[in-house]
Amino acid sequence: MSVFFFLILIFILYFKYPFNHPFSLQKETKEINAARTFIDILAMKIALLQLDPTVGDLAGNSLLIAGAVRRAPEFDLAVTSELALLGYPPRDLLLNADFVERSWDALRSLAQELADLPPILVGLAEPNRSEVGRPLFNSAALLRRGRVERTFKKTLLPTYDVFDEDRYFEPASEPQILELADAILGISICEDIWNDRDFCRRRRYHTDPVEELVAAGAQAVVNLSASPFTVGKQKHREAMLAELARKHKIPFFYVNQVGGNDDLVFDGRSCAFDRGGRLVARAQGFVEDIIIADSACPAGGLAAIARDDFAPESEIWRALVLGTRDYVHKCGFSAVLLGLSGGIDSSIVAAIAAQALGPQNVLGVLMPSPYTSSASVQDASELARNLGIKTMVLGIADIMKSYDRELAGPFRNLPKDVTEENIQARIRGNLLMALSNKFGLVLLTTGNKSELAVGYCTIYGDMSGGLAVISDVPKSMVYRMARWLNLQGREIIPASVLHKAPTAELRFNQTDQDSLPAYEVLDDILERYLQQHQSKEEILSQGYDEAMVEKVLRLVKNAEFKRRQAAPGLKVTDRAFGSGWRMPVACRAW
Amino acid sequence: MSVFFFLILIFILYFKYPFNHPFSLQKETKEINAARTFIDILAMKIALLQLDPTVGDLAGNSLLIAGAVRRAPEFDLAVTSELALLGYPPRDLLLNADFVERSWDALRSLAQELADLPPILVGLAEPNRSEVGRPLFNSAALLRRGRVERTFKKTLLPTYDVFDEDRYFEPASEPQILELADAILGISICEDIWNDRDFCRRRRYHTDPVEELVAAGAQAVVNLSASPFTVGKQKHREAMLAELARKHKIPFFYVNQVGGNDDLVFDGRSCAFDRGGRLVARAQGFVEDIIIADSACPAGGLAAIARDDFAPESEIWRALVLGTRDYVHKCGFSAVLLGLSGGIDSSIVAAIAAQALGPQNVLGVLMPSPYTSSASVQDASELARNLGIKTMVLGIADIMKSYDRELAGPFRNLPKDVTEENIQARIRGNLLMALSNKFGLVLLTTGNKSELAVGYCTIYGDMSGGLAVISDVPKSMVYRMARWLNLQGREIIPASVLHKAPTAELRFNQTDQDSLPAYEVLDDILERYLQQHQSKEEILSQGYDEAMVEKVLRLVKNAEFKRRQAAPGLKVTDRAFGSGWRMPVACRAW
Fold it and tell me: Which residues of A touch B417 (CB under 8 A)?
């Protein structure tokens, strides 16, 4: 019996005094670490390298990263954005095995070149050597003492909207922890921090890598991101990062890519939050920037927090300027042309191009027809003078007549219809492309999102061009941007452009509202339908006329064949036409 | 001590006599099930409904399914293809909550309408009611006695090439078993059967649903598929199904969709294999068909195995005919037009269109320029006579002159270059689009894959059109198809078309080989690069000239901006340009 009591006694003692419990050692270590965090992290300087890589340009991106690291002031760890060595998004370049191999050669050279500096985390793709699973990982490689020491893998792989990461990547299977000096850093990549159970309306993933990093002892979380700009997104990012930092009581260091790659514009605005959830550093928006985030910096000290302007007009303007500049330059061009109609759309696109590339690199082409009013020509000329861009005038009346003659036979006795309007738009498209071909200029298209949604545009006509600058900007926002622009210094967009009724001038006395509802109404219906995924019934509950709403939705469906062949357009809303809009053409959905 | 020996004795007995082992019960049940399989499955008749749904057409697809079920002879279970009620692929229609809701209304109506018949499995999307995860499941719903009794979910979600299923769907979490009469059926959907460890060169997924179904007692596997056609794929499918059936010693019933939906053509050829891996039934290729698969049918009895022709020319021809017919009809049109140049490409496209829609629904337009030889006009006319299609002649010389006059100023003193060639192609594009607009005809583009790869085509010119019929057929295969076609009865493609050197006739005495390598060489390089993902070094190891290979690869990269705006093209190879080709435009990858 004494043996029995002895066992009971041991049992009680075992649980009564947790310092004897096998798990207590870990717990104690954690407490010490927590205390140490406060000191170590205070002493840790992380360089956030907010760079503008070109997709696929391994040599150029290596130089960009090396230059930035060399320019960075003293740091303990430097961090690039997601897949920085490849440029985000590399898309199907990732399927060329050769491409990923060569990127590792570039990475090893980079490691050797920067061997004398503190460690650097560089984003790139990593082959999955296992027999099973998708071919790559989305990783961050740690360069230290001239070597690629190890990698950290992404866990949550966004596959929605413009993102296709499940197409290429296998997820990490465990928390990605970096021990650096005495600090324990959790390494996360972009989406990894976007599945918080308290912050997300609906969680898309079953795991939360941030929770797992914290459980594994992370004293701070570093995030390599490539998060495309949409209006208002930075506020959302900062609210979420603040919430995560506060909730887990650890600092967050967030590095975002900057620059335009095809339809996506990355706004940068890398930032850091202290363990109280206070913003302690923010890089500039829409430009390259290197900041040293250091949570020793008191929350009130705003020195490292770049000023920014979160007004939608300002955000969109800067996004389109950057997106246009990068698209043109990264395609290997320096100058652009566009048709100037005297309308608001081509006016704002010309202004964006002049800002992006310099007015000397912008050619505005006026192509009057018999239906073009003299006011339109005057407005276009005034705009060009305001901007200081070059102009050229090419009439289309004679070419129109030559088509009429050739088609007189087949079209005999048939009434005029949209066919003749489209011919005009396509003559203009052909002239613009001829100038583009002859002089090596990128043609910019000037259609807005409202038009592209309902098909109020001519395929192979005004839709022709290499980049659709404002194809994700609704018409009412085009007006808001124009008014905002005129308040930034001097009048750019002529007042008459702002005040006349919009018209395509493809027949006499035509206005857009002949065939479309007022743009404020149209834009509200489109936003409900496209962005909020509302059904026809939900839209009708706003009191709109049923026949009108049905017409708009039918127009959206019927324009799918045009959008399928549209130029890449710069994305600024949560749902843009383009790589994130994947609708069937041959279908009967309504 | 006696207690100790007693324990040892029990231990030995426990392992010595496995009938006492807790796992032995399961094993015994399995053996009984295996014996039962042989009887039950022999008695089971499964109707494979190989139908051609239209994407999004819930009412039409319901009618199609109901009609097929009513027409089917006696059966114990009827099975549609994957997502048959929605049409595959529904793409972003799935993101309209409204669309999925309405499909369930349609499903419930269908259940009521078919209440008097044996159970039916219908493919559609199912909302994921959990708080976490992607919004939908890719499911098969069991309709029985007027009700939607339950659903079976897809486990493996293809997200590569043209497939985007991770964008929409959450995977099943357990084997999907249907007990029907006394039989235990494993229900799988498309990709679920494509991860076999012995058959796949590299497994993309960590689980094998077929193994799990077998482990869960499945006595047969039913598969609802929507597997797009590519050359030679049916042989691959049948080899894999035979292997699975043999390996697991159970029959497989495979139902595939048929028909064209945008760029994808589904070839049907639904089939069944007995437990010995013998093909016991195969539906016809490229047409709707309903077959009753019954493994009681002896393997040697070929009555239910549709004859088929696996020659690549025959397969591609039938795919393009079906894809063209369905695209035109599902877009709501009945007739088409195309430019006839007298060359091989427009000739074969005219022949495909005439077969698909009837010659009375095809208009060939000849648009000679000063560079067009009289032989070309004769060849085009002869082809049109052979096919019995209508023709029209529209000269472009006068329109060319009107452009020349308008551009004389800006182009003064500059040499002629590709600009002037593109103007001609765009005049033709404008004339064809004018006829398309005025008469409600779908314009077919006629460029082949070799041209589209290297950019030997004019954007907004000969690339204009609603459907690119042969844009996934390499030039050398176009020739093979033309020769094959002429052997099917009478000469369709004039011999002179087959024998002259290919030319775009955009300047005097031009031939394609002025600027491109011979097509056999070009096509071999392209196949290695595009389909086999070979690097430049691997291609060079074939002995090709380095400068020539570099030029080809550079041309492929530089044509990306054109392909981005290309019409949907019918996919026939493993890697087509289009929805499964996602390359950046602004990049520096070579």
Answer: 437-438
Assess B74–A contact: CB distance below 8 Å, yes or no. Answer: no
Complex-level ipTM: 0.91
- Tell me, yes or no, if A415 comes closer than 8 A to chain B by beta carbon: no
Instruction: For residue A351, give the nearest of A320, A394, A374, A327 by alpha carbon.
Output: A320
Query: Closest by alpha carbon to A220, among A435, A43, A485?
Result: A43
Give residue A2's pLDDT: 59
Asked whether residue A419 carries a pLDDT value surpassing 60, the answer given is yes
Q: Which CATH number fits domain B13-299: 2.60.40.420, 3.40.605.10, 3.20.20.80, 3.60.110.10?
A: 3.60.110.10
- CB–CB of B433 and A411 under 8 A? no
Pairing verdict, β B177-180 and B467-468? unpaired
What are the DSSP calls for B400-439, one per residue?
Answer: HHHHHHHHTTTTTTPPP-HHHHHHHHHHHHHHHHHHHHHH
* Stretch A466-490: mean pLDDT: 97
Query: Percentage of chain A with pLDDT > 70?
Result: 91
CB contact under 8 A, B54 and A460: no
Task: Write the DSSP assignment of A233-285 as a string of letters.
Answer: HHHHHHHHHHHHHHHHTS-EEEEE-EEEETTEEEEB--EEE-TTS-EEEEPPB
Per-chain mean pLDDT for chain B: 91
Q: Do B582 and A91 touch (CB under 8 A)?
A: yes
Residues of A in contact with B196 (CB under 8 A): none
Cα distance between residue B427 and residue A312, in whole Å:
42
Q: Is residue B43's pLDDT more than 80?
A: no
Shortest Cα–Cα distance, A398 to chain B (Å): 7
Is B190 a known active-site residue?
Answer: yes
The pLDDT, as a whole number, for residue B197 is: 87
Architecture in CATH for domain A29-310: 4-Layer Sandwich (3.60)
A254 forms beta bridges with A223, A271
- Domain residue extents for chain A: 29-310, 315-407+418-563
DSSP category for residue B590: -
Predicted confidence band at A228 (pLDDT cuts at 50, 70, 90)?
Answer: very high
As a whole number, mean pLDDT of residues B154-163 equals 97
Q: Model's pTM, two decimal places?
A: 0.92
What pLDDT score does B13 carry? Answer: 43
Residue B550, number of CB atoms within 10 A of its CB:
15
Report how far residue A158's alpha carbon sits from residue A194's, in angstroms, rounded to the nearest whole number: 10
Contact of B44 with A575, CB cutoff 8 Å: no
The answer to whether the beta carbons of residues A17 and A27 sit under 8 Å apart is: no
What sign has the CA pseudo-torsion B248, B250, B251, B257?
negative
CA distance B184 to B36: 10
Pick the CATH number of A315-407+418-563 from 3.20.20.105, 2.40.50.180, 3.30.1310.10, 3.40.50.620: 3.40.50.620
Checking if the pLDDT of B85 tops 70, the result is yes
Q: Does A423 touch chain B (CB under 8 A)?
A: yes
Which carries the bigger pLDDT value, residue A354 or residue B510? A354
Token output for A562: 């045009």
Query: Distance (Å, rounded) from C-alpha A328 to C-alpha A334?
Result: 6
What torsion do the CA atoms of B488, B489, B490, B494 make, to the nearest 10 degrees? 0
Q: Are B210 and B196 in contact (CB under 8 A)?
A: yes
B13-299 matches B315-512 in fold: no
Element spanning B221, H or E: strand B220-225
Which pLDDT score is estimated for B25?
35
Greatest Cα pair distance, chain B, in angstroms, is 116
CATH 3.40.50.620 for domain B315-512? yes
Binning chain A into helix, strand and coil, the percentages to the nearest 5 are 45, 15, 40
